[in-house]
Amino acid sequence: MSIENPKPMEPSVVRFDLCSQAFKQDPFPTLAKMRAQGPLIRIRLPIIGAVWMATTYDAVNDLLRDHHRFIQNPAAAGNRFAAGLMRWLPRSLRPITTHMLIRDEPDHRRLRGLVERAFLRQNVDALRPRLEALADEALDRLAEQAARSPGGVDLLTEFARPFPLAVICELLGLPAEDRPKFTQWASGISKAGSLVGILFALPGISKLMRYLREEIQRQTEHPRDGLLSALMQAEEAGDRLTEDELLAMVFLLLLAGHETTLHQIAGSVLILLDHPEQLRELTADWSLAETAVQELLRYLSFAQVTKPRYAREDLEFQGQAIRRGQMLIACLASANSDPSRFENPDQLDLHREPNRHVAFGAGIHACLGAKLARAETEIALQRLFTRFPNLQLAVPRSQIRFTKRIGARGLVQLPVRW
């Protein structure tokens, strides 16, 4: 008589508060406790429930690079609950949920290939003079607002948000007369940090969708210089992006590219103000800017976790038995503070090299706009601190608050004066 092997027991679910101000202000102690639990832990998250979370650098890297066993589409992994979460969206807005970050092979390879062809036409180094001019224009408006508000001005609202949005308008090649309304709609979307906020933003999203469809038609008849036209013209083996795929790509640029960059700029300013000696060293020698921005990306880790992956089949990963359809999340912030990869990870070191952080992810879904985001952050910091060398907080440091949104280390406001 044979005895079946008992099914392996899942590890107990652990709880860490990843939304509290204490965690957002100083995440390093909590991240260390998470890694101490193991490279892959079972953790309970608000709304989502129990999920697997990769905590170490190696586990995060392995998870993100293994697109054969871990996929983006929950339906293909048999997870019907996760697959149905987006069904509440109006049908007219469904295209924005089909961008390439949630596509698997071979669809992802097709979309990424077409988008890469368009991006190659947008040389970031050649764009730098224009990026600097846009930063200066945003700083002019910041100075005007500060003159009307001697008690202080919100750097996030008046500079960190409008500057990357101006870059996106420039990148897409939108007509100058359309940029104010586009910026207004897009800004509303980027402020939607909760489910309620998203619901309030739906009218603006609908207007933005209508505008983009009309602009695609206009640029079909009269092409402009810019990424939107390049995306429309990108072709590989006779294949092109559909209109819905174009819309999804623009929204990805707005939500992933714009939000990440604006919070990286604002968060970097706060970190540098928290480290005045390193700020003085940077402003005395801007040749440090490239390595400084890489370190600020690692240290802040605005995107603390990735979008979920799903196990394609029953498998073993990092010594744990994973069932088909189970959700796995990579904790980028924990990977970026793993002492096995980074010496003294809880200390800011603007000279840190090498600095192979995973702030932009890894594998086939790594951020396509990483170089542009680094350039925007570098330019924003250099122009800001050069123009306002006496920049300081306008409120006590204890009053600075981060958003409660899980998975993102973004500021609510950054009041400054000079």
What would you say this structure looks like, in words?
The chain is built from 16 helices and ten strands. The chain is α+β, with helices and mostly antiparallel strands and 418 residues long. The strands form three sheets. Strands 1-2-8-5-3 form a five-stranded mixed β-sheet. Strands 4-10-9 form a three-stranded antiparallel β-sheet. Strand 6 and strand 7 form a beta hairpin. Helix 12 crosses helix 16. The radius of gyration is 22 Å and the shape is globular. The relative contact order is 0.17.
Distance between the termini: 82 Å
What is the molecular shape?
globular
Order of helices and strands: HHEEHEHHHEHHHHHHHHEEEEHHEE
Give the averaged pLDDT, no decimals: 87
How many helices? The count is 16
Tell me roughly what share of residues is in helical segments: 40-55%
Q: What would CATH call the architecture?
A: Orthogonal Bundle
EC number: 1.14.-.-
InterPro entries: Cyt_P450 (IPR001128), Cyt_P450_B (IPR002397), Cyt_P450_CS (IPR017972), Cyt_P450_sf (IPR036396)
Protein name: Cytochrome P450 107B1
Enzyme class: oxidoreductase
Summarize the structure.
By secondary structure, this protein is α+β, with helices and mostly antiparallel strands. It has 16 helices and 10 strands. Helix content is 49%, strand content 8%.
Task: Reconstruct the topology from this structure.
Blueprint: H1 21-25, H2 28-37, E1 40-45, E2 49-54, H3 57-65, E3 70-71, H4 80-83, H5 107-120, H6 124-148, E4 153-154, H7 155-160, H8 162-172, H9 179-190, H10 195-221, H11 227-233, H12 243-274, H13 276-284, H14 289-300, E5 309-311, E6 315-317, E7 320-322, E8 327-330, H15 332-335, H16 370-387, E9 392-393, E10 415-417
Helix pairs in contact: 5-11, 6-8, 6-16, 8-9, 8-12, 9-10, 12-14, 12-16, 14-16
